[in-house]
Amino acid sequence: TPIVSKAGAALQETGATSAVVKFDCLQSRDDELYAAAGIPVTVALSGGLCPDHFFATNLEEAFAWAQETGADCCVIETAGLCNRCAPHLRGALALCVIDNLMGIDAPEKIGPMLRLADVVAVTKGDLVSQAEREVYRYRIGQMNKRAVIRHVNGLTGQGCRDLAAIMAMAPDIKTVTEMKLRGDVYVRE
């Protein structure tokens, strides 16, 4: 959330606007962070359902809300907790945020959220050595050879302008009615 809010603020500095739909489980105060950054946000809580599956079943409503805000860029933020599905949409920019403290095997364990992403933002690099950052980046590359990998810092905002520039190049989507998820089963190549 800090990364997306800082990237959204960087987008605003270029004259583009963003809106965020945050899908979470039982509670969230992330709307406060987005509001402080001046970014329109709505929160959808899935309760006992997987937030990724909840997102997929409420996509049209989320997109309609974002369109009502008039934002140039709609960001769907979901927990990414499901190892079976990837809530990335075909034809939309797909971002996966992971951190250097998740463990060296995390890139392999994350599943389709990482494997099907266009962009992987790696956080908390300031808390590990340069060698650990490089090994982690290599492991990410093993799981997703085509993704753009960017190191970002949610506290300082370092790298968020670069991420905002990538977000600004996202495809223009007029409707999500016929859109499909990129994948729903983790298949190891």
How would you characterize the overall build of this protein?
With 189 residues, this protein is α/β, with parallel strands linked by helices. It has eight helices and eight strands. It has helices at 2-13, 30-36, 51-57, 59-69, 106-110, 112-115, 130-143, 160-168; strands at 18-24, 41-45, 73-78, 86-89, 95-99, 119-123, 148-151, 181-183. It has a three-stranded parallel sheet, sandwiched between helices. Helix 1 (2-13) crosses helix 8 (160-168). The radius of gyration is 16 Å and the shape is globular. The protein starts with a helix and ends in a 6-residue tail after the last strand. Residues 185-189 have low confidence and may be disordered.
| Low-confidence regions | 185-189
The total beta strand count reads: 8
Q: Which series of helices and strands comes N to C?
A: HEHEHHEEEHHEHEHE
What characterizes the major β-sheet? 3 strands, parallel
Spatial strand sequence of the major β-sheet? 2-1-3
Q: Which percent range describes the beta-strand content? A: 15-25%
How far the N terminus sits from the C terminus, by CA atoms, comes to: 31 Å
Structural category is alpha/beta
Shape: globular
- What is the radius of gyration? 16 Å
